[in-house]
Specification:
453 residues; alpha+beta; Herpes Virus-1; Jelly Rolls; 3 domains; seven-stranded antiparallel sheet; elongated
Length: 453
């Protein structure tokens, strides 16, 4: 092969982003190829949709398989360069005047052929430098893939934490309105208690907001550290064989830090406001207590509302997981009678339930087979368990409720004409949440869904 042809051949094995020979090459939709690390960093910095750095063609897929042929050819190109460089002065053995083409595994040193046969090295394992260097690159790239996965998880956590901060601030404003309405509408509650209640809420909310902001800052910093480590490893993989092995000889490489970094990843903040007891509240509510007779009871393996909720929690970047255990059974029931006016109070025991949904729904939703959260005419409080963490949400629209899960009886008070549905923790006589200023225009049935461990 003449020199011009060789240069053309080598250019075809060069990444147009880093101008080095391909490292873990991938071929994207338009047909152009790049180092996977270079493309990953480039696309992370770029806008959506992702486009080819060379021709600007759009790429629909987020990830690609390694181009095995290009990878082997790039490895051969590095070997040709290494063979060419063996004649350089620093790679010639001073004693034997031969190229150092072998690597001693025991001593981590470069040897020529005669040196490898000397008594001090004869019993050691020796291998060609290029082969050892390529194995080192493979180990580094394996760690890089782990590091990048960790980086992606950190980005997802950071986005969720930032969204959580805004969601929590909005919730605090809504909870203030909920509390104010309760004190205004229930005669036995005192304005002095309302003032203390709101002041305590304000102070606790400030402390939680500060924790959330600190968490976002720490996650941002950690993401930058992971990114810089990834860049360092990429640069190391691009080093010539001799330099790469010299780095290996000096000791631990930056990739070793990934394990310690993983152990110290910032954990998300779980914002949870304290509940403020309202003495005498439950006794006052029970003057409106009604007996709820359930009918249309059925057991099902499928309750789409919980699956909808989990998908929303996972987000577009969340893991593709089948959240519903195949053997889980849900108990569903509707009230035998509907409410069309007046004030009504009833209680439901949720003790021992890991997932549950309670509240009101209209007749049309009760008749649907696909009970999803995007339907109109449903007013539900939902509790969902993820790992060991419980979270509360309300429907219409779906909103998180940053208060602790009730452990026993939940009281529900419907003021149909006033357009309010409130949920209470009976055990400590406190407000869980409220639907405020609703326009109830159709008959509403009590609804219950529960799943037991």
């Amino acid at each position: 092969m003449d020199l011009d042809t060789l240069q053309v051949f080598q250019r075809e094995l060069t990444c147009s982003i880093c101008m080095n020979w391909f490292l873990d090459p991938v071929t994207i939709d338009c047909g152009h190829s790049f180092c996977r690390p270079c493309l990953s960093l480039c696309w992370e910095e770029g806008q959506t949709p992702r486009s080819c750095p060379e021709c600007s063609g759009l790429s629909e897929r987020p990830d690609f398989k390694t181009n095995i042929v290009l990878k082997r050819l790039a490895s051969l190109a590095r070997q040709v360069r290494a063979d060419h460089n063996h004649s350089s002065e620093e790679q010639i053995c001073v004693t034997h005047q031969e190229a150092k083409g072998l690597f001693c595994e025991a001593d981590q040193t470069l040897l020529c052929g005669p040196c490898s046969e000397c008594p001090e090295h004869a019993a050691h394992s020796h291998r060609p430098i290029h082969r050892v260097a390529e194995e080192s690159r493979e180990k580094l790239m394996k760690r890089m893939r782990t590091l990048w996965k960790l980086r992606e998880e950190m980005k997802s956590s950071l986005n969720q934490e930032a969204n959580k901060t805004q969601s929590f601030e909005n919730y605090v404003a809504l909870r203030k309105a909920m509390i104010t309405v309760q004190y205004q509408r229930i005669p036995l509650l005192l304005q002095e208690d309302e003032k203390l209640h709101l002041e305590a809420l304000e102070q606790e909310a400030k402390e939680i907001c500060q924790l959330l902001k600190e968490s976002v800052f720490k996650m941002t910093q950690q993401g930058e550290i992971l990114r810089e480590m990834y860049r360092e490893l990429t640069e190391m993989c691009h080093k010539p064989d001799m330099e790469l092995l010299q780095v290996r000889k000096k000791g631990p490489v930056p990739s070793c830090r990934s394990e310690s970094v993983q152990l110290h990843l910032p954990q998300p903040v779980v914002p949870e406001l304290s509940v403020w007891p309202m003495p005498g509240l439950i006794d006052w509510l029970r003057q409106f207590q009604v007996y709820i007779e359930l009918h249309n009871e059925r057991v099902t393996h499928h309750f789409p509302a919980f699956e909808d909720l989990r998908c929303l929690l996972a987000g577009p970047d969340g893991p593709d997981v089948n959240y519903t255990p195949p053997r889980s059974k849900y108990f569903l029931a509707w009230g035998a009678e509907s409410f069309t006016s007046g004030q009504h109070y009833w209680e439901v025991d949720v003790a021992g339930c890991c997932n549950w949904a309670i509240g009101l729904c209209n007749d049309s939703w009760a008749r649907e087979n696909d009970l999803t959260l995007d339907s109109k005419g449903i007013f539900l409080l939902l509790c969902i368990k993820e790992n060991s963490q419980y979270s509360l949400f309300t429907s219409s629209p779906l909103l998180p409720q940053y208060v602790k899960k009730p452990l026993g009886q939940v009281g529900m008070f419907l003021d149909y004409d006033g357009g309010i549905l409130s949920f209470f923790n009976v055990a400590n006589s406190s407000l869980i949440c409220s639907f405020l200023y609703c326009s109830f225009s159709s008959p509403l049935k009590p609804f219950l869904c529960s799943r037991y461990p």
